[in-house]
Amino acid sequence: MVEPVEKVAPAPGGCGAAPAAQLGAGAREFLKALASEQRQQMLELFAGGIELTVGTVAERLGVGQSNASQQLALLRRGGLLTSRRDGKQVFYRIDSAAVDRSLAELRAYLHTCCPPGN
């Protein structure tokens, strides 16, 4: 007996077209973290690989510690910062390896969905 063949709609772009590009959750969080001007200003404080505490970030930007803590958490979730605890203090710094991974994923996504002109 012959099995029925399931009909599949053709992919957009014609026969044999590649599936639509998908941006991973990590890259989405990366872009969300960069979407705020305040968080972009925070990142600039970490230039040169220095470590800063929440209190130092808050002081340098003239914002409350609660606000700074929330924004730093979003930057960490987005893979832009990493943190370490030393007693009661939490020190943040740029997570270069994670940033490189997110940029590579974003670049691959853009080349798949929107290839550069020849």
Name the CATH class. Answer: Mainly Alpha
Measure the end-to-end span. Answer: 50 Å
| Beta strand count | 3
The assigned structural class equals: mainly alpha
Global Rg: 21 Å
Low-confidence stretches: 1-17
Helical fraction equals 40-55%
In CATH terms, what is the fold-level topology?
Arc Repressor Mutant, subunit A
Average of per-residue pLDDT values: 84
What is the architecture at the second tier of CATH? Orthogonal Bundle
| Major sheet description | 3 strands, antiparallel
Describe the protein's architecture and organization:
By secondary structure, the chain is mainly alpha-helical. The chain has a single domain, classed as Orthogonal Bundle (Arc Repressor Mutant, subunit A), CATH 1.10.10.10. Helix content is 49%, strand content 12%. Strands 1-3-2 form a three-stranded antiparallel β-sheet. β2 and β3 (89-94) form a beta hairpin.
